[in-house]
Amino acid sequence: MSNAMTETTLAGAPEAARAPLSARFAALWAAAGVRCAVPVVVLLAAGFLAPLIAIFAYSFAPPRSFDVFRAFSLANYAELFSPDNTVWLSFAWSIGFALVTCALLAVISYPIAYGMVFLFGRWSSLVSVLFVFPLFVSENVRLYGWVLFFIKNGVLDGSLKWLGLGGAPEVLYTPGAILAGMVYTYLPFMLFPLTLGLSMVPRDLIDAARDLGANRFQIWREVEVPLAMPGILIGMLLTFVLAIGAVSEAKILGGQSVIVISHDIEIAFTYAQNWPLGSALAVLVTAFIGALTLAVFARLDLDRLLGRR
Amino acid sequence: MTMNRRSVLKGMAAGGLALAASPFAGARSAFAAREKDLNILCWEGYNSAQVLDPFRKAHGATVKAESLTNDPTMINRLRAGETNVWDLINVNNPWARKVMYPEKLIRPLPRETFEPYFDKMLPQFKPPYKWAMDDSGTELLGMCQRFGPYSFVVNTKKIDRKTAEDVGWDLFNDPKLAGRYGILESDDWNVFGLFVVAGIDPFKKHTPDEMAKFEETAKRVFKGAKLIGDIAAMNQALISGEIDLHLTGGTYSVSPARADGYPEMRGITPLRGPMAGGKGGIAWIEVTSLVNNPQLSPLAETFLKYVQQPEVAHTVAFAEGTYNPVTQMGNPDCFKLFTKTELEAIQWDSLEEDMARCVEYDIVPDYDQALDIMTAAKRVRG
What we know:
The structure holds two protein chains of two kinds.
Chain A: H1 2-18, H2 21-30, H3 32-58, H4 75-80, H5 87-119, H6 124-132, H7 139-150, H8 155-162, H9 175-199, H10 203-211, H11 216-244, H12 248-253, H13 261-269, H14 275-298, H15 302-305
Chain B: H1 5-30, E1 37-42, H2 49-59, E2 62-67, H3 71-79, E3 88-92, H4 93-100, E4 106-107, H5 111-119, E5 143-155, H6 161-167, E6 181-184, H7 187-197, H8 208-224, E7 225-229, H9 231-240, E8 245-250, H10 251-259, E9 265-268, E10 281-291, H11 299-306, H12 310-317, H13 332-335, H14 340-345, H15 348-356, E11 358-360, H16 367-379
Parallel strand pairs in B: 1-2, 1-3, 6-7, 6-8, 10-11
Antiparallel strand pairs in B: 3-10, 4-10, 5-8, 5-9, 5-10
Helix pairs in contact in B: 8-16, 9-10
């Protein structure tokens, strides 16, 4: 039976290849799945692909022009790669912040995720809600809240002075404040994939490892981390992608003590009115993130992660 | 058919135009019935419910207003083809006369209908008012309402007003004040301010030496800034004591803090400076014009008349966000609506003398180059 089906399929394939284009399209259209997918395809094309195409095309327009699709120029890329251009500093800050944020969040989130999966029991739902709850408040509002907390004569400084403790150290408007803001903002985006990853580690394997004489470190290194790796990687990727595009932390908490790459793109599209240059920057950032994402997903088995096999 | 770069570009062009046109497809078909539609591109304030709701109710109109916070973006929206979308554009003074009318992005107003409104404005706006007219002085290009001096802001408890006005922009050259000032995130105005701090008139073509001086000043001033941020961040930092003064600011930016009970925060107009006539301050005046829309809404002119009414002009002056003087304060019926607190918030006590010390906002011929230098200076401050 199975062989017969295979033969039929194989015999049918060249037939289909020889069929006229309209017939092949009609056959494709006849499939209910394809027809049902049309709204999604249209939505993705209009909402996702169209802006990307526009940005990509703009990056090849002459600088400070709106001649998109009408002229072709590599001048924007030439300017970005010019040795005189300091935009690499913004790239370096953004990548640096994103890497450090990722690393710190992995270290901070792992014990919390471990607790939520293995230790907190029925309280883990409550802990989840506590971490999700701040997401209901706008990021900018939360960051302004931190400014009010840390600002001179603000909540912390004022309280310490009132207690006669001499006031708080100056932390606002520094790269350190930006990093702290990013760690705070992106914590849930690392925590929940990590929790998912750790929940995939069978308890039996940990018990078996312990029975066979493995110590706590060996269990962590040989069992927990490898099995939770898909979740760890997804968390790190998600955090990195979000953090590299972050701008509010640098603006609000950092007082623009450094200019991050998203801010450079924003300046190009607003005050500079150099849409082609802003687009070229956006294309470079997108290409960098895209390459990174592909590299990570090449190492991931999503089907396994989502429990399909 | 052979594929080459030209054919690919043509294909991209067709696709791109189709994509670009799609969001406005619905809007175009609706142009046939625009009697009840009005679209306004403006600075914040005109988009507030306090200003728009009574108009919507009175005319049964659908009014859409988009607010942006810099002029070049708004002008380029029209250049990019959105003259089909907007009916009114509200930008600062030079753009109507020097850019938008010559580029046919706006159309003149009927002078006989609208010029009489200027008669009731404050004395310096009496017709024919330069920035409302075209170069030939025959066409009326827009209506004026909000205006104000815009140089820098100090906490007068830390630096008294007299000192600030006398020392002027050199405050930002004083090494002792490094780390005690902020810079408002308003890059086009910061270009003006940094030129003036460097002792150079911003509104002219600059020599390489002047640009080098500008670059040195930009790097030094940005390096010495405690923070760069928006109006809320500047006022918060002033009130908390994080900073004592900030570059680029005036009634527009500091009025919310003054209205909140901090009258010691004050927009300063220096006594002298490197600009024409030895003036030390820069002022802005908004001009609202009719967009050269092929299907212009008849409500556009109606709206311009509506905002001239004393009550509405007062609402515009105190619409959400920032508080500003309005030209209609020359009309006693409008002026009497302002309370003492409101007049204090907009620094009415010194408005006339401050404006007299100001040149009017103009276009910097080499703005692109200066902005690039300034952006690079910001990058290296970290």
